[in-house]
Structures are given as C-alpha cells and as structure tokens.
Amino acid sequence: GDSVTQMEGPVTLSEEAFLTINCTYTATGYPSLFWYVQYPGEGLQLLLKATKADDKGSNKGFEATYRKETTSFHLEKGSVQVSDSAVYFCALSGSGGSYIPTFGRGTSLIVHP
Amino acid sequence: DAGITQSPRHKVTETGTPVTLRCHQTENHRYMYWYRQDPGHGLRLIHYSYGVKDTDKGEVSDGYSVSRSKTEDFLLTLESATSSQTSVYFCAISESAAGRGETQYFGPGTRLLVL
Lengths: 113, 115
What we know:
heterodimer; A: mainly beta; 6-stranded mixed sheet; B: mainly beta
C-alpha cells in the first residue's frame, strides 16, 4: 500500500537558517503530493501541493518539488522565522492504490530567535 | 479559511460513558472525515462520509460510529469511551474525494480526555 516517510523531529533551527524537511513516498500510480502545516493548538492547513512530476509547489517562502525519480517531495525554506515553528505533515493521495490520503507522522520544527 | 467548526473543543469524560463529537461545515462540501491524532502515530482516519447517510470505515474505526443526516453535519460517537480513546480529534472536509488528490480542510480539533 501507499506510505509516506518523513524525517523525525524535532528540527531545531535559529532564525534565518535554511530549512529542509525530507519526505519520501511509496505509491502506485501518480499521486498528488501535499505539505500541511499545524500551528500549536490548531488544525492542519494546506501549505503547498504538487500534482505531477517536476511540479514545484510554493507558498509563504516554502517550496517543494515533486521528484518522481527519487520518489521525494522535500520541503525547503531559505530563511525560517520564529513564526514558522509548527508541525509539518507530508501527504499523498490519488495514487489509485488507496481511497484515502496517506499522511506522514509529522515533523516538529522549532525556530529560536 | 474554510468554515469548519467542531464542538465541544475540550471534553473530559469517564470510562464507559458515551460521547458525541460534532463537526459542522458551511462549505457544502460532499466529503467529510474524522481523524484522531496521537503522538508517534500522526493522523489516523476513523470514518469518512461521501454524502448524506453514506459513510465508510477508516483504519481505526473500532469503538466509533458516525452519522450524517445533513450535508453540513458529521457526528462521531464513542459508544463506550475507553482510556485508549484519549486523543485529539480532527474533522476534515473536501469538495471531492481526498483519495483522488483533492485538498482537505481541517477543523480546529477536539481534545478528549477519558479518565
């Protein structure tokens, strides 16, 4: 079945540092890929998505590129802020192998001033 | 922001009591979902609905039931709460099937503590 693997956290960075959160997936077919973000005490919200190979999703300075050859969708940001502290979830759906989305376990990001 | 509310937002109950959580949406989306979030497990799907009176089980449905009598409301019931059901519960909606690549929109969550 489908699966999503994220790097374990927490990831701890200083403000203005470069961020990478790794995400790899296993799926049949050609899924859409997502990054959701969960701020403390809130529900998940869509950060960005990509629907086909080589697509780049971007939002709020975050980017991720759909790499079919490496089955990856790594999240990057050039300069993190304290307000980016949150839990980040990688997810996939639409592979044809499952009728529901598949989420990674989440990666906690802590940004210090 | 998508119009999704959950009630109650916090609840403490005792083992063996029934509990009902409510999800209400104002987006007229066809699909609604209930997830639970636990440390080390991420999000796990409990049940979902693809229309009024149309529901199906997710990966952790034992001990839970759902009902959807109106498009805007999706109820999750714990028939007899157990301590293992202590969790944060999230409702989500999508315009079409999330399993087909559609974006999901999540509610603010309900924190449930079963003593």
